[in-house]
Every structure is written in C-alpha cells, then in structure tokens.
Amino acid sequence: MKFLLAPVALCALSLAAFTAAAQDMFVVSLRGTASFTNDSGKVVFKIVTDRTLLQEAAQAAGLADAKGLALVYHVQGGLGDTMDIVDAATGQVADTLLGFYFGEAFDRVAITNSLGTEIRRLDYIYTKQNSHSLGSALVVKRYRPATGKAGVPQVSIQGDYQYIITPQNGERARICSGNFRTLKPFVPRK
C-alpha cells in the first residue's frame, strides 16, 4: 500500500504545481442548440455559438457590437471553473454564464490518468437563475508539459453540456445542449 501511495501523491503534487503554473483563462469555442416551443407549441431549435453568446451579451450591455468582449473558460473562476464573458482588453469578468461546480465534492470523484495529465469530471452546471444545478457537463482537461523556448505548459479543455434556462421576462423555457473546447490561452488585447 505504501508503494502505491507514493506515486499517487507524487502525481498529485506534480499536477498541482503544473496547473498552478498554467494560464487560468482560455478562449473558448462553443457550438450547440437551444430548443424551445414556439407560439404554435412546436419544438424549434436555435443554433448557439460563442459568437451568438457574445452578441447577446453586447446587446444586453447596450454595446454596438461584441468586438470588445471575449468568451473564456476560467479555471477556478468561482466555486469551480466558469464560462465567462470578459472585457477583451483587460480580462475583467463582465458576466459569468455558467459555473461548473462540485465535480469533486460530496463524495464525487474525477477520473484521472496515472500521470495526472488527463482529468475527466462530471460537473453540475449553475447559472444566475437559480441557486441549484440546472444541468451538467462532462469536462475533460488535458495537460502537457512545457515545451520549446517559451516553456509554457499546454492545456486543452473540452466538454459536452446540457442545461435548462427557466422561463423569465416573457421568454419560454429553453433546453441548451452542445459542446465547447478551448482554443488558446486568453491574452488581453491592449
């Protein structure tokens, strides 16, 4: 038993050091659908992408366009990871769209490979609408050691999600589902 614990502890420590050195915000690409009923009671679908989410956020903020905004996956952005709308020039969080919480709480566990470089978690999705989970996501994080002259670890995060948007302000309930993946570390456009 002692022989097994030492490598596991070593992997956990190296992963913690590895992730602490890594970037915590990543530009994210998202593609999915929102399904809802129209005025005739028919189920219809609307395509949802990172661009449509940014356009909606810009419109809600009274901005002419979404050029000054970015959609990011934020590692440890709250109680866990978050998907945020940020100011593209500063990285300041303007709005949190989704919280990916409690994948490793309340006796839940992640699946991690022996090197600690791949983690798979089933996270609950939280939104501003409710203090309870409104969905879930299977999130996969992959970490590769630093290479090249820059010496920056490579991180990729992807996930499949599904959650509900409850009725509000005259809008009907919507069920959202799709997938996302990180593209690159977020760097403010100063």
Structural notes for this entry:
- By secondary structure, the protein is of the alpha+beta class.
- The chain has helices at residues 2-21, 50-60, and strands spanning 25-37, 43-49, 69-74, 81-87, 93-101, 111-112, 118-126, 135-147, 152-165, 174-185.
- It has an 8-stranded antiparallel β-barrel with strand order 1-3-4-5-7-8-9-10.
- A hairpin with a 5-residue loop joins strand 1 (25-37) and strand 2 (43-49).
- The radius of gyration is 18 Å and the shape is globular.
Mean pLDDT: 86
Which outline best applies? globular
User: Describe the biggest sheet?
Assistant: 8 strands, antiparallel, barrel
Q: Percentage of helical residues? A: 10-25%
Question: What percent strand?
Answer: over 45%
Notable features of this structure?
single chain; 190 residues; alpha+beta; 2 helices; globular
Question: Brief description of this entry?
Answer:
This protein has helices at residues 2-21, 50-60, and strands spanning 25-37, 43-49, 69-74, 81-87, 93-101, 111-112, 118-126, 135-147, 152-165, 174-185. It is α+β, with helices and mostly antiparallel strands and 190 residues long.
